[in-house]
Amino acid sequence: MTSSGLLALVLLSRADLGLAVAAIGVIFFLENRKVVGRVVTFLGLLWFLLMAFWVQPSIGLGQYPHIAAFRHFGEGSLDVIFGMLSDPFGLLKDLLVRSNFEQVILIIAPVLFLPLIHLRYVLPAVPLLIFYLIADVPVGVLGNPQQDVAVLAVVFIAATYALMKMGSTGVSRILVGRRILTVLLLTATVFFIRDSASSPFEKPWEWGRRDETDIARVTSVFWLGPDASVAAPANLYPEISERKNAFVIKIDVPFEPSSEQLKHLDAVIFDENIVAWTNAELIKFERKMGELGFDRRYDSKGIHTWIRKPGSD
Question: Which CATH class is domain 212-308?
Answer without folding.
Answer: alpha beta
